[in-house]
Amino acid sequence: MAVPLISSPPFLVFLSFFTLCLLAEPVLGITRHYKFDIKLHNVTRLCRTRSIVSVNRQFPGPRIVAREGDQLLIKVVNHVPNNISIHWHGIRQLRSGWADGPSYVTQCPIQTGQSYVYNFTIVGQRGTLFWHAHISWLRATLYGPIIILPKRGVPYPFAKPYKEVPIIFGEWFNTDPEAVISQALQTGGGPNVSDAYTINGLPGPLYNCSAKDTFKLKVKPGKTYLLRLINAALNDELFFSIANHTLTVVDVDAIYVKPFETETLLIAPGQTTNVILKTKPRYPNATFFMTARPYVTGQGTFDNSTVAGILEYESPPNSLHSSISIKMLPLFKPNLPALNDTSFATNFVNKLRSLASAQYPANVPQKVDKHFFFTVGLGTSPCQHNQTCQGPNGTKFAASVNNVSFAMPTTALLQAHFLGQSIGVYVPDFPSSPITPFNYTGTPPNDTMVSNGTKVVVLPFNTSVELVMQDTSILGAESHPLHLHGFNFFVVGQGFGNFDPNKDPAKFNLIDPIERNTVGVPSGGWVAIRFLADNPGVWFMHCHLEVHTSWGLRMAWIVLDGELPNQKLLPPPADLPKC
């Protein structure tokens, strides 16, 4: 429950000054307090009951609601045996990197019986984001929505909806996901896939024993609903559609976009999409499935199932319709794209454009100080002596950026950076381009072994960066949703095949490119992004397919302090967890 803190004025303060403070409050924002108790509790899905790690015994976890400009103080108390940290996905964390959350990057995890207060202010953001655990695979059950409303008195750039509904996609495992990834890392093989997808924690009627566990969205005719869609699934991009209804996309990753209509959308893990649903003008005498299933580009196994919720219209009171059972009505089902429909995926993301208005400009860096070219993809690492491994040709699966599989440190990178104690923790020599170039999307090289290291890129404050991320064909081309902490970035270009530095930049969109925090590197292709390194701290970048992050598809950027006081990282809080 959010509790705004409004200080009482000191005794005998002038009434006019007090009035001024009250008038200023909506502009400055308020302080909101939340408490997250991390506990184990039993949940039954698919006729299986298991103990899950959750927040406040809720699954999915509680909704965080705030306005642009508000300060959030979220106390996380760890009552479970696992180490815990929480990431506020998409929050810029301007100068407040200590609150970002990835374990061993910006903080040591919160140990059993310990607590930590995440303290941050929402600056210049409004829309839908989400929070999730950021250690191992605990985010399988530790996640929930973040709803950021505009400042009081500031309207949406579209008609105000009748109602707003968060819809968060997840993946359910009948076994403990921690055991799943632990076994995979030990054997070197691919992890077991999930048993179901969920909408707001519910798998729906297409799964065994789950008709009663179905999300139902009850609507009125002739109304508009803002659906706040969040993909919190561990390892799968998802297609989503509502039968016989058109959706209008208005926002992605808490950034307003030029509105466009679509019957189906694609949403990758780590991404959010706000859509307007306009209901039919009259009671339709029918119900409608809303379904999601994966978009698959890789060669590994995957959860080939479909989650369904139901869109139900409220019948007018005292009408013939009200006496008809919902179960008697026809149920329409949407037609989702084929599992590997890269053409649809490409066409969908190409429609996304920033609003680029006077009120919501697209401040794309027009000049570039530093260029980077990163290959992202899979690889192998050697099997340990006297062990049989289940990866390709008896090796272990790995993943890398520029062939560096990131080795997580045992102390937090941000703390080491802040204290000037990097020796033995990280080295600032992450390669700006592949050390050994090859035909990235052609015949893969014979040597697929990755290197290992805790390497980072160091950027001076306010450096303008252009980063091209190139998928590779090693162990099969695959789409990779890359998430950058601490920043939004502009997606200025993308294409298939190998990036051509001589021809492709001429086609970059520097006028109204989409701005976001998580972007899909196309399967067998590349994506180019630009961002301004205006946020001092240590910022993680990784694939949001959790299996790839576990295999090492991750790295970190260090942005140095600027010269002015408001360009420097704030000091660490007193309760920062220790390793």
Automatic annotation (TrEMBL):
Pfam families for this protein: Cu-oxidase (PF00394), Cu-oxidase_2 (PF07731), Cu-oxidase_3 (PF07732)
GO biological process: lignin catabolic process
GO cellular component, one term: apoplast
Domain of life: Eukaryota
Keyword terms of this UniProt record: Apoplast, Copper, Glycoprotein, Lignin degradation, Metal-binding, Oxidoreductase, Repeat, Secreted, Signal
Enzyme class: oxidoreductase
Stretches assigned to coiled coil: none
GO molecular-function term, one example from the UniProt record: hydroquinone:oxygen oxidoreductase activity
Residue span, Plastocyanin-like domain: 40-151, 164-315, 430-561
InterPro entries (UniProt xref): Cu-oxidase-like_N, Cu-oxidase_2nd, Cu-oxidase_C, Cu-oxidase_fam, Cu_oxidase_CS, Cu_oxidase_Cu_BS, Cupredoxin, CuRO_1_LCC
Cofactor binding, per record: Binds 4 Cu cations per monomer.
Family statement: Belongs to the multicopper oxidase family.
UniProt-recorded name of the protein: Laccase
